[in-house]
Predict the 3D structure of the following.
Amino acid sequence: MTGPMADPVAYGALELEWGRRDAGAWESLFAGIECSSLEQSWAYGEALARVESCRVHRAVVADRGRPLAVVQAFEKGRFLPVTPVRIQRGPLWLVPDPSPDLRRRVFGLIKRQFRLGRRKLLVWSPELPAGAESQALMRSCGMRQMVTGHSTALLDLTKPAEDLRAGLHGKWRNALTCAERSGLSTRLAAGGRTFDWLVDRCDSERRRRGFVGTPGNLVRALAAAAPLKDDVLVLTAAADRERLAGVLLFRHGNTATYLLGWNSPEGRRHRAHNLLLWRAVLELRERQVGWLDLGGVNPAASGVARFKLGMSQGLRTLAGTFI
């Protein structure tokens, strides 16, 4: 979909080019991002447009034709006096270690496209680490923090598999060893009945327990918009042909995100999730994926948080949401 302006917007030597790339071109740029966020991927934009009926604005920031960063924004409620626009975990950089001045100029260029003078209200959750430097950058754009940033657990898949295993928390690694000895069989799929089974199970569990999670209609729309079929990874564990657990991950560029997981009482007894996520790690490494985002870590869900932290090498806390 087209952006808020049809022509490139210049700022010094920088240009903000709206709506000039298709899915293939966007994915080609996305592949060059070291560690990307799902919310800035083409598939996520298409999925959210379908599920929430919002407009998607995509832009590339370039310096004399050289792409520097990409950003995807979501606009909803066009008939309101002021239209809210969301940027989630963007922009993403295509160049390593951008200077503070370049960051300031790029963020300022983006902010000017969604200002109140244009009847736009920007709600921005940037892909920035928590800290004073990020707060100063957002203040330079005239924005103030409204919500503190969430934390996510990341796993660097470029390390050798033996180093990754050695880096697991001792209890997590012991549970994995028990799962490997349990005799569970695992299966990898990209869609079909296995995908539907897992999404339905997770949706039912989410409604029953009343927790916030990725809704099934968004996951289905995301899978439908995936540039490649094998961007969707579904792994299941079974005993005597009965499925006991399943996980779903989505690849976006050089990164994959853990989206859904379901476990039966028998699956928990056999530590099936430890086995499935470890198999997912090995599969992603085979596909040359560099990072695994295990998803948000919520202290209120202490069991889930401990599980994710036991697998990762630490938390990454983001700067927050600004308005």
